[in-house]
Amino acid sequence: MTEDRRGRVKVETGPKRVRVYLGGKLVADTLRPLLVWEIPYYPTYYVPLTDLRADLDPNGVTEHSPSRGEATGYDVTIEGLRAGGAALRYLDSPLPELKDAVRLDIAAFDWFEEDEQVFVHPRDPYSRVDILGSSRHVRVEIGGVTVADSHSPRILFETGLPARYYLPLTDVRMDLLTSSDTHTSCPYKGTADYWNVRIGDTEHADIVWIYRTPLPESQKVAGLACFYNEKVDIYLDGVRQDRPHTPFG
To answer: Which terminus of the chain, N or C, has fewer Cβ atoms within 10 Å?
Structure first.
């Protein structure tokens, strides 16, 4: 990336109705949400000021972005409820679309796209998730020990990420797995629980996950285990796969 393009972000108007709640009170309701790719992997929602139902109280916080300019921080208040530091405005942004919009922290509120709740971040309109049943032979090794061996994987293809192999628990060496306290959330799949894997005296932390109750569009992986391709050796139909390089490696 050349110097004059560093820090630029993509901004576009999303087609979905987006509503934001705080403690059951409607903070924003917009048919014109802005999708802003602050980082390359997924967008963030900005809400037009005209669609904001809550009050913004300046809190003295400022932040700088090389692409978006200087931000002013606000607390969000509505009917006696307050979300401290949950809003930013770029009043003099070099991106004209942002000047009349407010960035609301997704973690501070309950967000809905149409009538379905969304978690972690907005769904990227340019990302797709396909889950396909397969009869390919998947074998997983860690430190030379086979920890899973299956002929009935579900393969999850997600834009921008390597294929993920979700395996029946009956095909996994569950005796090598111990529960982890780690949980992560995905706007496409839901909340994942993690396991560690112990091989001899070495514990490999948070290397396997499972979606026990995934979101409706990802039901095909419910109750199946998946290993990080980046951290294990996966053999597909007997051929060892290269470990991919991703932000999760």
So the answer is: N
**What is the per-residue pLDDT across 133-184, written as a single tens digit (0 to 9) for each?**
999 999 999 999 999 999 999 999 999 889 999 999 999 999 999 999 999 9
Distance separating alpha carbons of residues 227 and 210, to the nearest angstrom: 9
Asked whether 209 and 216 are in contact (CB, 8 A), the reply is no
d(CA 105, CA 120): 10
Beta strands in 90-215 (DSSP E): 101-104, 110-113, 116-118, 129-133, 138-142, 145-150, 154-158, 164-167, 177-186, 190-199, 202-210
Query: What is the reported pLDDT for 247?
Result: 80
Compute the half-sphere exposure of residue 129: CA atoms within 13 Å on the CB side of its CA.
17
pTM: predicted TM-score of the whole model, two decimal places: 0.80
- pLDDT tier, 5 (very low <50, low <70, confident <90, very high otherwise): very low
Q: How far is CA 237 from the centre of its chain?
A: 30
Q: Region 78-98: what's the mean pLDDT? A: 96
For residue 99, the model assigns a pLDDT of 95
**HSE (side-chain half, CA atoms, 13 Å) at 233:** 9
Query: Which residues lie closer than 8 Å to 127 by C-beta, 6 or more apart?
Result: 42, 158, 159, 160, 188
What are the backbone angles phi and psi of residue 61, rounded to the nearest 5°? -85, 140
Q: What share of the chain is helix, strand, coil (3-state, %, to 5)?
A: 10, 55, 35
Q: Are 176 and 234 in contact (CB under 8 A)?
A: no
Q: Name the 3-class secondary structure at 91.
A: coil
3-class DSSP assignment, residue 195:
strand
pLDDT above 70: residue 103: yes
